[in-house]
């Protein structure tokens, strides 16, 4: 079990037999091993897929919004990576709790749980650290009075982006990549005006949907599909497309797990993790798998930090890799699938 689940299990007497909302858990066995009436809210499709064999639909929600569970005894937030997303989640969780109910935050110390006291302050009193073990902490506050209802409009941001050929209204939520602005790498990819091949185009890791929106307008003979692992990104991408009158299909996928068929092109600003070393394993898995979703001669067009060693990976898995554009930080690469 994940460290955060282990620390919850150490306090099992607080949770056993209760009706609980558990938000952003890892995909592990906590909910099977600790007997409670669990209601899970996740925005991570990998977790949704992992827990769907042990929890049925009313108990497992994959969404940008918190399920409206009634008569809760308490709620637990597993600290997300982005602090703004913790604020967004707590603002939805707290109004579901009656006065006197506990609201918990658990997480890794290096993942920002030490900010729990500040995060919980708007929603209750008697805030205390209950446990600290396995590099994690468990915090609790007790909800006081009526908490203001959550309004999505207070959190959703819409910004107008000006491109040389069009204006795009981009909708985003806290914790969605490049919230409220255009990423410099995505901008460089969109400066490239070479047309995409006609037919189906996949926007992999679509975020708030900026790549597909701009490129769909420029390439009227292309039909876009957008995928992301994050429910908040999928919601924002759907909103961005509709605000800009672009028709496209949007659906969840962990990597290319739910992408079927072959595409004339795949465009992406692919995710990569930074740690002590730059981890290119996600990108490598993507380059390896994407060949089965490209038509013969189909184009892979991506943008990435210039220091990432993507060209040899692209050449191993897809084919000869050209630099379409570059600046001092990013490079836009294009490769054609064999065929
Ligand atoms: C660098 S951002 C690019 C977002 C958007 N295309 C843009 O240009 O603004 C990468 C995106 O990949 C998504 N992502 C991360 N891991 C993923 C996975 N395993 N499967 C699908 N999408 C993933 C993230 O949620 C994020 O939205």
From TrEMBL:
It is found in: Cytoplasm. It holds the Pfam family MTS_N. Its main location: cytoplasm. One of its GO terms (molecular function) is 16S rRNA (guanine(1207)-N(2))-methyltransferase activity. Keywords: Cytoplasm, Methyltransferase, rRNA processing, S-adenosyl-L-methionine, Transferase. Residues 169-334 form the Methyltransferase small domain. GO terms for cellular component: cytoplasm. Transmembrane segments: none annotated. It is an enzyme of class 2 (transferase). Its EC number is 2.1.1.172. It catalyses: guanosine(1207) in 16S rRNA + S-adenosyl-L-methionine = N(2)-methylguanosine(1207) in 16S rRNA + S-adenosyl-L-homocysteine + H(+). Gene3D superfamilies: Vaccinia Virus protein VP39. It comes from the Bacteria. Residues 5-157 form the Methyltransferase small N-terminal domain. Specifically methylates the guanine in position 1207 of 16S rRNA in the 30S particle. Monomer. Belongs to the methyltransferase superfamily. RsmC family. This is Ribosomal RNA small subunit methyltransferase C. The gene is rsmC.
